[in-house]
Amino acid sequence: MEYQDILSKRKEILSRPVHPIPADKLASERKLYYEQNKRSLEIFEKAKSIIPGGVQHNLSQNKPFPLAMDRGKGYKVWDVDGNVYIDYLMCGAPIILGHSYEPLDEKIIEIIREKGPASGLTSEYELLAAQEIINHMPGVEMVRFLQSGTEADMAAIRIARAFTGKLKIIKIGGSYHGWSDQMVYSIHIPGTGSLESKGIPAECFAHIIDVAPNDFDALEKAFKDNKDKGGVAGIIVEPIGGESGAHPVHPDWNKTIRKLCDQHESLLIFDEVVTGFRLDMGGAQKYYNIMPDLTVLGKIITHGYPSSGAVAGRKDVMSACSGGLGEKVFVGGTLAANPISMAACYYALKLMVEHDAVGKATAYANRITKALNDLFATRSELGFFVYNFGPIIHYMTTAFFSFNLTQPDAFTQILTRKQVADDYQLVTMTHGLCTLAGTRMYTCMQHDDEALKKTLEIWEYLLSLIPKS
Predict the structure, then answer these.
(1) What is the distance between the alpha carbons of residues 227 and 119, in angstroms, rounded to a whole number?
(2) Which residues contact 288 (CB under 8 A, 6 or more apart)?
(3) pLDDT of residue 122
(4) Max Cα separation, the chain?
(5) How does 296-329 read in b/e, with b if 16+ C-beta sit within 10 Å?
(6) Are residues 272 and 413 part of one domain?
């Protein structure tokens, strides 16, 4: 689906009232959720006393309570009550070969058995993993491994400031770059500023410039206005749009950013935590043929194995990490680049190429996107629609992420629309469909006809619960 089509369809949803599930039908679905998830409820009730909120994971479906998972295999996951789900969460995007992919797992088991998990010292797998990333990503000449995408984003903006000698970092509203102090600003929804920054001193945002998505004039103004105020060290972007495509980019947006960075001697940072090795084996930089100066990578590089993150880029820029005392950019992490994570990275990337994981996941994503749009067309009054960037799928039902904050009832509308989307997700989860936040789906190379059929059946059932107008 083209950029203008997405914006037009999104605007149409926002112009209409939401379509809630009738109270009696929703009550029946909630009752079923409780009945078939008794063990998950027991775990949650115990967890509330020792874990804040009773859940560790931001990605969890947690209304009315989170489900505790037991195992995953291929494109399916099972919870502790034995319920099975068609999984489109895929651990938040890193799983593209499929859950518990034996050729990869066997390599890791062998390392644990024969070598142990970590020594705190260098291993050969660091070199193998770094070289494999460099082989695929055209904008990468050096790699520094870290333990998460959040850490990699922190390192990237630190490197940008050190290399350029400038202060300001431009961040695009609605984008997510981890939870470090400087980056928790205008996340999820453009224009929200410090709304979700409780516990973070306001001074942390002194050198962060918030620019609205696809606002070309504001972007150029940000560079010019800060020339004599410390200058712009870099701009950090999700290359398919904030929240990995929830706020899609104009076709000329990334090209314009690249041009402005060159004009003002600033660095372009692509946050490819989601797009790297999922949109394309060469990331969004290869897909769009736009070379960033720095690339942030996260969970997919170890295919779900922990301690997973990296900052990478041009050799001259990355060399800022390699100086002597007082000269280098300080980054660290005792378990960063441990042999298990590095071996997982090396072998996962090899296996993705060998089995054309991105191609297969993309082909399925194209099929499910078309099939869902065909289904939603039968209920055109709802305005629901789906679009995808390769195996990254967005489905819009209430468009709560996209509501304009200038409207007088903005927050009421957002909360109302979010609640209806949560209710939809409760239904789909209850009947065996696991997605991300009621808005997103990730595919793997093992999704098949059975998955497609079951997915459509569940969505057909959801639509049947919504009254026709």
Answers:
(1) 46
(2) 239, 254
(3) 87
(4) 69
(5) bbbbbbbbbbebbbbbbbbeebbbbbeeeeeeeb
(6) no
Give the CA radius of gyration of the chain. 22
Distance CA 261, CA 180 (A): 24
Q: Is 299 among the catalytic positions? A: yes
Q: Which residue has the tokens 């060159």?
A: 262
Domain-ending residue, one of 306, 328, 354: 354
Which residues does 48 contact at the CB level (< 8 Å), separation at least 6?
54
Domain boundary among the residues 354, 375, 398 is at: 354
**pLDDT attached to residue 217:** 98
Q: Of 87, 271, 280, 423, which residue is the catalytic one? A: 271
* Total domains present in the chain: 2
- Buried-state track 451-460, b at ≥16 Cβ within 10 A, e below 16: bbebbeebbe
Residue 296 identity (one-letter amino acid): V
Q: Are residues 30 and 81 in the same domain?
A: yes
| C-alpha dist (Å) from residue 366 to 362, 391, 440, 446, 457 | 6, 8, 14, 14, 18
**Are the C-beta atoms of 397 and 385 separated by less than 8 Å?**
no
Q: Any idea what the CATH number is for the domain that residue 54 is in?
A: 3.90.1150.10
The rounded distance, in Å, linking the Cα atoms of 87 and 227 is 47
Q: How far is CA 9 from CA 150, 376, 395, in A?
A: 32, 12, 11
Question: In the predicted model, is pLDDT for residue 119 greater than 90?
Answer: no
CA atoms within a 13 Å half-sphere pointing along the CA-CB vector of 198: 1
Q: Angle at the Cα of 18 (from 12 to 21), degrees rounded to 5?
A: 140
First-to-last C-alpha distance (Å) of the chain: 27
State the pTM of this model: 0.96
Give the type of residue at 176. Answer: Y
Q: What is the DSSP letter of 141?
A: S
**Coil, strand or helix at 455:** helix
Catalytic residue among 88, 101, 176, 387: 176
Report whether 462 contacts 424 (CB < 8 A). yes
Tell me which residue range forms the domain holding 73.
3-97+356-465
- State yes or no: is 346 an active-site residue: no
State the DSSP string of 145-204.
Answer: EESSHHHHHHHHHHHHHHHH---EEEEETT----SSGGG-SS-SSTT-TTTT-TTS-GGG
Each residue's pLDDT tens digit, 27-73: 999 999 999 999 999 999 999 999 999 998 877 778 899 999 999 99
The one catalytic residue in 299, 346, 360, 387 is 299
Is residue 346 within 8 A of residue 125, CB to CB? The reply is: yes
Return d(Cα 400, Cα 419) in angstroms, integer.
Answer: 9
